[in-house]
Design brief:
Helix content is 48%, strand content 0%. It contains ten helices and no strands.
């Protein structure tokens, strides 16, 4: 803004122009006089620059919205995960659970922050080609890294489908509280890999058998050494 003022003082708002004028003249800052909003008509050159900037932003505005949508699922996607197969956590049984206090019918059962509309998208944006600014993932693994490598191959509908499949299915993943970036990326890369759960039938049976064994053994320890401090599977 200061550079704009130096080139054309009439291109900045009146209150800012007064502030810069006083700064150039060495007048001390007076909040009482300068912190009041004013309305000033910008110069024609300023209007042209504003329209050009608005046009550029419209062409590249998907980057921020998609990034915020992905991060919303990484942070809060577990809140919409299906973790109650028996349907016990309903409004009648647990009327004061946070998820039961909200009316999510107009959001297809998802919290508002997990909907495209919350991040500035509409139904018209679901299948069009997205516009991204730059190709950097900012050191993030997972979906952002994939989008940075091939942004022209995805649509908003496909991104939303992958996010809900990853974070809102029958398994919840919560890791964004981890302070170590490498550890967080390690979990994120494996959670957001589309091929992560494709196991053969024999492998699934083996995993189930090991889980049953561990659970039975833990129950045995709880009965055999009921006064001994232990750290169980739940922890």
């Amino acid at each position: 803004m200061y550079e704009r003022y130096l080139q054309d003082p009439a291109s900045v708002q009146e209150s800012w122009r007064t502030y810069f004028d006083n700064m150039e003249a060495g007048v001390p800052y007076d909040e009482e006089n300068l912190n009041r909003p004013t309305v000033a008509t910008p110069s024609p050159n300023a209007k042209k620059r504003g329209l050009a900037m608005a046009g550029d932003s419209a062409a590249t505005s998907d980057s921020l919205g998609v990034a915020h949508l992905i991060r919303a699922y990484q942070v809060n996607g577990h809140l919409a995960a299906s973790l109650d197969p028996l349907g016990l956590h309903n409004r009648n049984s647990f009327p004061y659970r946070p998820s039961n206090l909200m009316d999510l019918t107009k959001y297809d059962g998802y919290p508002p922050e997990l909907t495209p509309e919350y991040h500035g998208f509409t139904e018209a944006d679901m299948d069009r080609r997205l516009n991204f600014l730059g190709r950097s993932a900012g050191g993030n693994k997972g979906y952002l890294e994939e989008l940075a490598s091939s942004p022209e191959k995805v649509t908003l509908r496909k991104i939303l489908k992958e996010l809900r499949s990853t974070y809102c299915s029958t398994l919840a993943v919560e890791y964004m509280h981890i302070g170590n970036v490498d550890q967080m990326n390690w979990i994120r890369q494996r959670a957001e890999n589309p091929q992560r759960w494709h196991y053969e039938k024999e492998k699934k049976q083996h995993i189930f058998e090991r889980l049953c064994f561990a659970d039975t053994f833990e129950n045995f320890l709880a009965q055999k050494f009921n006064t001994t401090k232990r750290f169980g599977l739940d922890g």
